[in-house]
């Protein structure tokens, strides 16, 4: 088999695989997908930003307690 024939076979396999995407389990999702409007994008960006801020604040509180709690506990128990 020549190099050209093997390339044509690979090309044919790729095209067949991409044809099945539209009919498979992800096909409906791809057909319904659309570009968000600017208002939708801004709202979801705000929600994501607020979520990141909340997770960061919780992480900071845990870190701060982790740093400050051992000396306080040691003083209470006289260690």
Topology diagram in text:
Layout: H1 3-21, H2 27-32, H3 38-77
Verbal overview:
This protein has 79 residues and is mostly helical. It is 82% helix and 0% strand. It has helices spanning 3-21, 27-32, 38-77. It is elongated, with a radius of gyration of 28 Å. The N and C termini lie far apart (79 Å). 0% of the residues are buried.
Task: Describe the structure in brief.
The protein is mainly α and 79 residues long. The chain is built from 3 helices and no strands.
Spell out the key features of this protein.
79 residues; mainly alpha; elongated
Flag low-confidence runs.
none
Strand count, sense and barrel status of the largest sheet are: none
- Secondary-structure element series: HHH
The gyration radius over C-alpha positions equals 28 Å
Global structural class? mainly alpha
């Amino acid at each position: 088999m020549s190099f050209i024939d093997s390339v044509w076979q690979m090309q044919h396999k790729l095209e067949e695989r991409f044809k099945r995407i539209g009919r498979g389990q992800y096909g409906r999702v791809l057909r319904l997908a659309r570009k968000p409007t600017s208002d939708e994008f801004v709202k979801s960006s705000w929600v994501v930003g607020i979520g990141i801020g909340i997770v960061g604040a919780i992480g900071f509180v845990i870190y701060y307690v982790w740093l400050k709690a051992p000396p306080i506990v040691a003083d209470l128990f006289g260690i």
